[in-house]
Each structure stands twice: as C-alpha cells, then as structure tokens.
Amino acid sequence: MAKGDKIYFENYVACTALAKKAATYLVECLENYDANNIEKMLEEMHTYEHSADMKKHEMNEMLAKAFVTPVDREDLDMMSQQLDTVLDLLEEVLQKLYIYNIQMIEPAAIEYAKHLVKACNLLGEIMGEFENFKKSKKLHPLIVACNDVEEECDKLYLITMHELTKKSTDVLVTLSWYKIYDCLEACSDACEHVSECVGSIVMKNT
Fold it and tell me: Domains of the chain (ranges plus CATH)?
C-alpha cells in the first residue's frame, strides 16, 4: 500500500478513538447521573461529536483532492459517514435525556451503554487492522466479535422493552424511555454497520 494512503486509515483510527471516549463518557454520565448537570454533560459530549465532524470534513477534503485511493473512494466516504453516525447517536442519547427531562436512569440503560463501549473498543481494534486488511488475520474475528456485541444489544433491547411495558405507570415516562432505548439500539446498529462496511471493503479488494 502506498505511503500516502496511511492518512485515510489514520483518520478512521482517530474517529474510533473519539467514539471510544464518547461511549465511555456516556457510561460515566449515566452511572453518576444528575439531571441538574445535563447541560454540562451535553457540552462535553458535543466536543467528541464535533471533533468527529471535523474528521469527516477532513476525509471529504482528502477524497476530493485524491487522484488514486487505496480502495474505492465511495467506500472510503461511506466508512467516514458511518463512523460519524456512531458519534451522532452517542450524543443523541444524552440529548434525549435532556429533551424528556429524565430525572432517574434505568439500570438497563447503563448496561446498554457498557455494551456500546465494547462495540466502540472493537471498532478501534478493527480500524487498527484495516490498513493491512489484505494480510491481517485478526480483522475477520474482530468483525464477528462486533456483530456478537450487536446481538447482545438486541437481546437486551427486547427484554428491556418488554419490562418497560410491564411496569409502566406513567405513560409519558414510558414513551420517553422507549425513545431513549431506540436511540441506544440505533447506536449499536451503527457500530455493526461500520464493521460490516469494513468486511464489505475487504471482500471487494481481496
């Protein structure tokens, strides 16, 4: 692979590092939740999301100027967008807590967020291997592991939504948590989409 191609993969590594920090921060926020501090939490989380936006813009500029890319530029652009979506959704979880004026955190939400940390950590490992995708023996097992985390999230989502309905006493609170869990589920799906995008690129180029 050409020396200049490293910049694309370094961009992805930087994006997954931001995703790991954002997911870890989400767990911290949920475990130590104080509704009075939600605006401060939002400001902190937005720094990660904004940094990811900058990385996406950086990728767009590189792709616009590049004559030759290591794989199809459309695939590189799709990967960048998928990674940005992960950060957007992590931020959106906190935004929904603010919008719905959530006062107390459901334990399952913390468990779900911890799964997202696992997924983002795996994405970091995947991107660390991505540059050498033609030779890497670790990449496929990492992609499978990321998909396994998404399946764990699916199971937790199903159980949690069922329990939420069973114990519902306040319709507004219940509907608010439906929206929050939907956002957490979308985030786990987004992580899986990134790993699947890597798998698709590998398949097309080997």
Answer: 3-204 (1.20.58.220)
